[in-house]
């Protein structure tokens, strides 16, 4: 996303001072527009500077760092909501296998809404349940159930160190 940041610079100087240095652009893609008006003994120039920046809010980076840290804590991490029936099904499935997943209930932890949005940006749709095995996003309930039916979930859990059988 490209946003333009605008800043207004006011230069005030006497009409007698013609010794100004030529203007050097501050940024190669910057655009500027000048609006001027004259007051007694002063000449005012208002410059509207526009700088294009690729802008990603800092809190998105912080939330993604937090998600990465949470995911690396255990071999199996599940982000869920306490009221979600599919989340309950996935948690029960892993517990039946003998896996002890780290479960983060997004409706009970601080900044849970921001973490849920970050999971959506990672490609989890719907955002809960989001299952990470071995630090990698497996997906939601559909993906986990598909892996289970294909008999590839147990080898994945063994490879991540969540099962020793």
Automatic annotation (TrEMBL):
<dbReference type="GO" id="GO:0005737">
    <property type="term" value="C:cytoplasm"/>
</dbReference>
<protein>
    <submittedName>
        <fullName>Monothiol glutaredoxin-S2</fullName>
    </submittedName>
</protein>
<dbReference type="InterPro" id="IPR014025">
    <property type="entry name" value="Glutaredoxin_subgr"/>
</dbReference>
<dbReference type="InterPro" id="IPR002109">
    <property type="entry name" value="Glutaredoxin"/>
</dbReference>
<keyword id="KW-0676">Redox-active center</keyword>
<dbReference type="InterPro" id="IPR011905">
    <property type="entry name" value="GlrX-like_pln_2"/>
</dbReference>
<feature type="domain" description="Glutaredoxin">
    <location>
        <begin position="76"/>
        <end position="138"/>
    </location>
</feature>
<dbReference type="Pfam" id="PF00462">
    <property type="entry name" value="Glutaredoxin"/>
</dbReference>
<dbReference type="InterPro" id="IPR036249">
    <property type="entry name" value="Thioredoxin-like_sf"/>
</dbReference>
<keyword id="KW-0963">Cytoplasm</keyword>
<feature type="signal peptide">
    <location>
        <begin position="1"/>
        <end position="17"/>
    </location>
</feature>
<keyword id="KW-0732">Signal</keyword>
<comment type="similarity">
    <text>Belongs to the glutaredoxin family. CC-type subfamily.</text>
</comment>
